[in-house]
Design goal:
This protein has helices spanning about 15-25, 45-50, 55-65, 70-75, 90-100, 105-110, 130-135, 145-160, 180-190, 205-210, 210-220, 225-240, and strands at about 5-10, 30-35, 80, 85, 115-120, 140-145, 165-170, 195-200. It has about 250 residues and is α/β, with parallel strands linked by helices.
Length: about 250
Amino acid sequence: MSLVLFGSLKDAPGVTTLASCVAYQWPRHRRVALIEADTDGGTVAARFGLHPEHPSLVSFAAVSRHGVSEAEFWSACQRLPGGPPVLVAPGGAATRGALEKVDFGELDRSLRDTDLLVDAGRLRGSETPPRLYEPADFVVVMVRPRFESLAVLLERAGDLSAERPLLAVVVGDGSYPLGEIDAALRQTTGDRARVLAAVAGDSRGAAALARDGGRERALRRSPLARTVRPVTDLLVHLCSAGTPVPSRPAVT
């Protein structure tokens, strides 16, 4: 199966929202788990009413020092309400220490029947442990269609796409159209990076996703869910053997 890393560069415009919505939409015939690996974390537990530390990425790191056990991984997971398993992280120094201990490549190999969606928050270059992003099959970067965000994306796109495809998800409004961003990415990276799709900057839909009373409706009818659905569908196709990176961004 596949490991998909979600992150951002200059800022973090809804990385956790995107990753959790994709996890909820992931097809049931493919086993999936969401992993919070953001040193600024603690967001998933707080948002979905889960315990912030017991169990968590930190407790899993403590028991996986001598090798990754599939049983120990699932024991360390909680569950998104009405959704798939999730390995939460408290953020801060504890999460940074855990990320230095967990071998994500070994974890991906051990969970051969599971797609792993990793919420890495902001990808801070040398501050982000290489063992977190090196095993990734795809890196999905959220970016705003604004000059300051796109400049950082184009600056780092070459390095991020050197070993695996880089897929940009454009969020919110701005002055740069998808086609223009896609063309710049392709030119910068020699076709190793693409714009995957655009998603709505839907704060109400994001808030409803975390509420028991509004979650089901938000997953069906919110602008967030409607625009994330093409992202989910394309990622599922990419995680299936033999499916190439799309040549054009999905426009909704």
